[in-house]
Design brief:
Rossmann fold; 2 domains; 22% strand; globular
Length: 157
């Protein structure tokens, strides 16, 4: 399984997993490094990680859809499961750039902060079809120590 940290401000999942946030996906997209330079194995698991890298522009013309699709297609040829972890705005920019080429979408909703689940058939603000959508709801009761949430899975749509 491949885990891609699509963080734009070094607050992504890489450092929480004990890995540096760079070099990573941004250096791969820019052609500065290859897959062998950015893929990291997570200890005691079959999971591999590509950190976000220094910075991937997510606004305006910043995301190169061709490069993104090429990299994701290459990973898809090697890995059975690819999970991209992103905050909402960065995830929305990626989702739009690759024209929704995901099989599943999972939204993490902080119920304690008053966040509402997305409407059925909606992912990151887009109406979608042909994608399995799930919502994970965090509540105060499901928070584990060190603010790592546990969540209940509910199907949306």
């Amino acid at each position: 399984m491949m885990l891609i940290d699509w963080s734009q401000d070094a607050s992504g999942i890489s450092e929480a997993l004990g890995q540096p946030s760079w070099p990573g996906f941004s250096e791969l997209l820019e052609g500065q490094l290859g897959f062998e330079d950015v893929v990291r194995a997570l200890a005691d698991s079959d999971v591999q990680l590509i950190p976000s890298g220094k910075s991937v522009e997510t606004r305006g013309e910043g995301l190169d859809a061709d490069s993104l699709n090429f990299a994701l297609d290459a990973l898809d040829d090697v890995y059975e499961h690819i999970i991209v972890v992103a905050r909402t705005d960065a995830g929305r920019a990626l989702f739009e750039a690759i024209e929704g080429r995901f099989d599943n979408g999972i939204m993490l909703v902080d119920a304690a902060a008053g966040q509402a689940p997305p409407p059925a058939g909606s992912f990151l603000g887009f109406e979608v079809d042909g994608i399995s959508l799930f919502t994970l709801k965090m509540t105060k009761e499901t928070e584990a120590p060190q603010r790592r949430p546990r969540a209940a899975l509910t199907r949306a749509g």
